[in-house]
């Protein structure tokens, strides 16, 4: 069987390659896997860490830009004027990531010393973190 070839400039080769890539099937990635507690807790730990860091940086920058606006007296006066629903909602939004990230961080430190590294240990510590987070969040919100 005879095969015909032709010479193409480099730009054409890139264009052909891009067309071929568009026709390739996409890897199923996360869509074929059932979510596991380890995956959910890991993603949540990263998210709460990023949220807490972002909040810290935002408040710090705001304090540097307008120090008289974000001092303790103004913040307390502002919060005192809010409805209770808003206060409890804001406290929950602050308490949950703080409690969760703290307890899951302790869980990671326990893993660092070589404890609870089995699947059963991972699941039991995961559920303990969820329970402790729920109790602590409720306690912090009701303070």
Radius of gyration: 26 Å
Ranges where pLDDT stays below 50 over 5 or more residues in a row are none
Structural class of the secondary elements? mainly alpha
Could you tell me how far the N terminus lies from the C terminus, measured between alpha carbons in angstroms?
83 Å
**How would you spell out the order of helices and strands?**
HHHHH
Shape: flat
Q: State the major sheet.
A: none
| Count of alpha/pi helices | 5
> How helical, in percent, are the residues?
over 70%
Share of residues in strands: under 5%
Q: What average pLDDT do the residues reach?
A: 91
Q: What's the total count of β strands?
A: 0
Kindly describe this structure.
It is a single chain. The chain is mainly α and 143 residues long. Helix content is 73%, strand content 0%. It is built from five helices and no strands. Helix 2 crosses helix 4 (84-112) and helix 4 (84-112) packs antiparallel against helix 5 (119-142). The longest helix is centred in the middle third of the chain and has 29 residues, at 37-65. It is flat. The protein starts with 9 loop residues before the first helix and ends with a helix. The mean pLDDT is 91.
């Amino acid at each position: 069987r005879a095969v015909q070839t032709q010479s193409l400039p480099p730009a054409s080769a890139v264009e052909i390659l891009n067309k071929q890539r568009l026709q390739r099937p996409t890897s199923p990635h996360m869509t074929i896997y059932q979510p596991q507690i380890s995956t959910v807790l890991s993603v949540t730990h990263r998210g709460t860490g990023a949220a807490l860091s972002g909040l810290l940086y935002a408040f710090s920058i705001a304090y540097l830009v307008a120090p008289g606006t974000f001092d303790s007296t103004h913040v307390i006066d502002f919060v005192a004027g809010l409805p209770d629903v808003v206060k409890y909602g804001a406290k929950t939004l602050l308490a949950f990531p703080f409690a969760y990230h703290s307890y899951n961080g302790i869980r990671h430190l326990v893993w660092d010393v070589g404890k609870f590294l089995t699947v059963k240990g991972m699941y039991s510590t995961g559920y303990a973190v969820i329970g402790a987070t729920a109790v602590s969040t409720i306690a912090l919100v009701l303070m």
